[in-house]
Amino acid sequence: MASASLQFFAFILALFGVFGDIAATLLPNWKVNADVGSNIITAITQMQGLWMDCTWYSTGMFSCTLKYSILSLPVYIQAARTTMVLSCILSAFGICITTVGMKCTKLGGDADSKSHACFAGGVCFILAGIFGLVPTSWYTREIISNFLDQTIPESSKHEPGGAVYTGFISAGFLLIAGVIFCTSCFKRQQGAWIYPPKQHHFPSTEQESNAGYNLKDYV
């Protein structure tokens, strides 16, 4: 029962991780540049994401521009796009597989099949967490290196936005959920190996009865 509750807790973490992963992939605020002019009317906030660049004016106007050209983007943005999409796909597969493999569901067949499905879902979550952690770390490193570069003007420097923090948290949730699922299945299999089911054999009794029957035939 404790293992089922732990798996359910890991499933909830994985759901938060999936939703956060998708949100981080689509949000335009991976890096933010707040440039405040001399007049409050001209105050703007510029945001750059993986798919679009947006500008928020203090007057309430909001405009976005899609990044159509892929080859013109920096390498870290291209890598972030690919790995974040892979992270979303793997985490979605993990949700489907662990739904079948969890103890609290009636899907998946016998205990061994559910254990294997649960382990496969945990591996998907771990890979999704790694794929989500790599681009956010790389993107943050690029932002910090540009911010510390003295040759770049102050108006062109950026800071990490909310999407980066969302990506970090989501990757952590997916990694924790994957480890819990894999560990719970491993414990179950290890217990089956250490304490195998007992089998009752009665060879001596059967042999004696057969021997007695054969002697009666020869009398």
TrEMBL record:
The keyword Metal-binding does not apply. The chain crosses the membrane at residues 84-105, 117-139, 163-186. It holds the Pfam family PMP22_Claudin. It is a multi-pass membrane protein. One of its GO terms (cellular component) is plasma membrane. GO terms for molecular function: structural molecule activity. Keywords: Cell junction, Cell membrane, Membrane, Signal, Tight junction, Transmembrane, Transmembrane helix. Gene3D superfamilies: 1.20.140.150. It is found in: Cell junction, Tight junction; Cell membrane. Residues 1-24 form the signal peptide. Belongs to the claudin family. Claudins function as major constituents of the tight junction complexes that regulate the permeability of epithelia. This is Claudin. It comes from Ptilonorhynchus violaceus (Satin bowerbird). The gene is Cldn20.
